[in-house]
Amino acid sequence: MESFFLIAAYFSPAIFLGLPRLYATDGGSALWLMPFIIFLFLIPVLWMIVHLYKNYPDQSLVQIIGRLWGPWAQPLAGLFFCVFFVIFTGLFLRQFSVMINVSMLATSQPSVTILPLLLAGIIGALQGPQIISRTNWVLMPLNLGIFLIMIAASLRTATPVYIAPLLGPGIDLLLWRSFLRTPTLLDILIIPVLFPFFRQLSHCRMSTWYGLGFVVFMYSLGLLAFGMNFPAEASSDIAFPLFQLARNISIGRFFQRLEVLFVVVWVILSLLKVMLSLYAAAACFSHGIGAPYYRPYIWPMAVLIYTVAFIPVNYLVALHWEWNYLRNAMAPVFVLILISLILLHWRKTKNKSELPREGEQLSAK
Predict the structure, then answer these.
(1) PANTHER family per the record (predicted)?
(2) How many other CB atoms sit within 10 Å of the CB of residue 341?
């Protein structure tokens, strides 16, 4: 169960930032249906991930590539995935810093929010995924409880007519736009990196299938609450949709302006994401060069992530780079890598199964 909720926590910060804007732009009033449709498109990818773990349970994605493609590919794969996690985490930190500035520290510089979160992420990454997972397990009731409270409280101001028509732009456009938005769940890349930490196949299956299914359900729940409070035409112009949803909560005289309470939860989830992403960057690099330990590379990766976080000039640029460039470019590459690994595994398995038959024929002659 720890790995199940760890995967859920890793995905969660995206829904608190700019992800609802994209779904509202593409899906209109049917924005809450898009995560379910995207999940259906990802079923073959999830099957390939579980199948790889079934055959290589003690190796990460980079090590599996080196084993199936050859020794020459392992350093390249390690560097490739390391660069992805560095850029991915840096862009996320920039978006996170703007959210904190808007919600709590309006006059602060981005470095004031990025640096403490990154330093805390370094501490967690040095401890490893097991400690990160146990920390998330302890904090999970708080995070999940406050999120559900926000959803329930937002129903007081809900206008169900905002989610009509239910299929938004129409079933054909909805399916096509959902397919184009499958990179929004590219965070599943963290699962093959964590292969060595799953104790058995059932844990990997639970994290991959049920973990992502739970994420999709929570995404849809948050998007449904947001869609019933803001019309689709205006939703795409809101910088932080769920933060705005939390600001609208007003229950009596003493339960108003509770968004700061929700910001605390978002900070916790963001910290867990940074910890795991920082570990993934260092682990991919160390596996690529064949180093026995990943910890010496945590600090260099943190410096690179901090540098990347200040490359975008503002929040919208960071949002655009992540969701329209980085994820869209990485998603097909990741899928092609998985397909090639599955095919190479089947080929090697077939060749091994044919060897005894040839030996039997020679002995018969």
Answers:
(1) SPORE GERMINATION PROTEIN A2
(2) 22
Lowest mean pLDDT among 31-40, 66-75, 171-180: 66-75
Total length of the chain: 365
pLDDT of 26 reads 87
- Tell me, what amino acid is at 244? Q
Give which of 16, 20, 98, 18 is closest to 270, Cα–Cα: 16
Confirm if 184 and 14 have CB atoms less than 8 A apart.
Answer: yes
Q: How many CB atoms lie within 10 A of CB 304?
A: 18
Residues 133/2, Cβ–Cβ less than 8 Å: yes
pTM of the predicted model as reported, rounded to 2 decimal places = 0.89
What's the CA gap between 346 and 33, in Å, rounded? Answer: 36
Report pLDDT digits (tens) over 77-92: 899 999 999 999 999 9
pLDDT band per the 50, 70, 90 thresholds, residue 255: low
Q: Cα–Cα distance between 238 and 53 in angstroms, integer?
A: 40
Asked whether the beta carbons of 61 and 193 are under 8 A apart, the reply is yes
Write the burial class of residue 328 (CB in 10 Å: 0-12 exposed, 13-18 middle, 19+ buried).
middle
Domain boundaries, the chain: 2-334
The DSSP secondary structure of 192-215, one letter per residue, reads HHTGGG--SHHHHHIIIIIHHHHH
Give 155's contacts (C-beta < 8 A, 6+ positions apart).
225, 228
Question: Within 10 Å of residue 228's Cβ, how many Cβ atoms?
Answer: 20
Burial class (CB within 10 angstroms; exposed 0-12, middle 13-18, buried 19+) of 258: middle
Sorting pLDDT into bands at 50, 70 and 90, what band is 300? Answer: very high
Distance CA 66, CA 44 (A): 23
Question: Which residue type occupies 211?
Answer: G
* 2-334 under CATH 1.20.1740.10, yes or no: yes
Report which DSSP code applies to 323: I
Beta bridge partners of 250: 256
Please give the Cα distance from 337 to 61 (Å, whole number). 10
**At which residue do the structure tokens 């080929």 appear?**
347
pLDDT for residue 363: 46
Contact of 84 with 328, CB cutoff 8 Å: no
